[in-house]
Amino acid sequence: MLGKTHRLGGIMIGSVTPVIIQKTLNTPINNITTFTITTIIGGAIGSLLPDLDHPNSIISKKIKPLSKIIREFAHHRGITHTLLG
Predict the structure, then answer these.
(1) What is the C-alpha separation between 38 and 66, in angstroms, rounded?
(2) In terms of C-beta density within 10 A (0-12 exposed, 13-18 middle, 19 or more buried), how is residue 29 classed?
(3) How far apart are CA 10 and CA 37, in angstroms?
(4) For position 57, what pLDDT does the model report?
(5) Three-state DSSP class for residue 25
(6) Dihedral of CA 4/36/64/77: which sign?
């Protein structure tokens, strides 16, 4: 997937997370707007992290030192592309 599709997936997951938390865990959220914005931003950023092991990815260009370290230990679509990663 490209950075755009990773980011769109993260935004989608981030936008439904508050609903899932409220309905599934039966937990009220005091400031739903702030929480939703936070989960959307977190989803957009977090969704790019699996490509940290690729030198030409959006996130690798922003965090070059960390990307370089990860590339020494992992190959593309390796550990960073798992649920654990």
Answers:
(1) 24
(2) middle
(3) 12
(4) 81
(5) coil
(6) negative
Residue 23 has φ and ψ, to the nearest 5°, of -80, -45
Q: How far apart are CA 61 and CA 4, in angstroms?
A: 15
Task: Encode pLDDT of 34-64 as tens digits.
Answer: 999 999 999 998 888 877 777 778 887 888 7
**What band does 14 get if pLDDT is binned at 50, 70 and 90?**
very high
| Of 64, 75, 77, residue with least CA distance to 6 | 77
Which pLDDT does position 84 carry in this prediction?
57
Q: Alpha-carbon distance 73 to 51, whole Å? A: 14
Would the pTM count as exceeding 0.85? Answer: no
